[in-house]
Amino acid sequence: xxxxxxxxxxxxxxxxxxxxxxxxxxxxxxxxxxxxxxxxxxxxxxxxxxxxxxxxxxxxxxxxxxxxxxxxxxxxxxxxxxxxxxxxxxxxxxxxxxxxxxxxxxxxxxxxxxxxxxxxxxxxxxxxxxxxxxxxxxxxxxxxxxxxxxxxxxxxxxxxxxxxxxxxxxxxxxxxxxxxxxxxxxxxxxxxxxxxxxxxxxxxxxxxxxxxxxxxxxxxxxxxxxxxxxxxxxxxxxxxxxxxxxxxxxxxxxxxxxxxxxxxxxxxxxxxxxxxxxxxxxxxxxxxxxxxxxxxxx
Length: 298
Known about the structure:
- By secondary structure, the protein is of the alpha/beta class.
- The protein folds into two domains: 7-265, Rossmann fold; 268-298, no CATH class.
- The protein is 35% helix and 16% strand.
- It has an eight-stranded mixed β-sheet, sandwiched between helices.
- Strand 5 (179-184), helix 7 (188-200) and strand 6 (204-210) form a beta-alpha-beta unit.
- Helix 2 packs across helix 7 (188-200).
């Protein structure tokens, strides 16, 4: 299935190198952090697409991963913990000509922000969510996150966890994301390709990047992620939701992590539906409330 490019990617295409999208802000991630690979992958994707920085918005919440916008030469919003999704949705609806990128972590996205994730997916907001999944809270010094393994001993689970970890991929497949992909952050080539394809996708794209935390997660190391990741076979049908879910289940049963494009489909985006609604009621100014109510009825 061919991706449908965002309109602004045609109208405002520029020729820049990855370094041109990098700010002069000094990095403050720990040495060996997987987030460096995520940043490199994003910068490469931006250069390959040729997005004009004046039409790029990078939104984040709170956490080590949410610091990423500091390093991207774009408009940016560092929002409240877990609230990157609603803010980014507002940006996209107000300015559908912009490329909107959310960057955040497993704690920010699936703990305090977890209630927003289903609605980003089901509404099919036209943007990409790059989630850096390190299975721990890094910024606040090593607490258990929604994706932490039960055997992890953290500051909040010193004897191990009592909860099953959340599976971000199955979560997003279940709630209707139209583009779902996964990679190890250390595999920059694959990560960059998935980010690029996700940004070119028309609809809500979710890319889960497994990113090691050398300071607070001594179980899921870079080598652990690298050894566990297994790219989906060439004959994987990414247009089949059932096949996507089965592939994830099979990999999990084999203690493997599926990587690559897991699922992609197309359906109207939220901004397209909103524009159609406005058109049906005759524009923003002189609309008839009763007509809107009639349109909303099944």
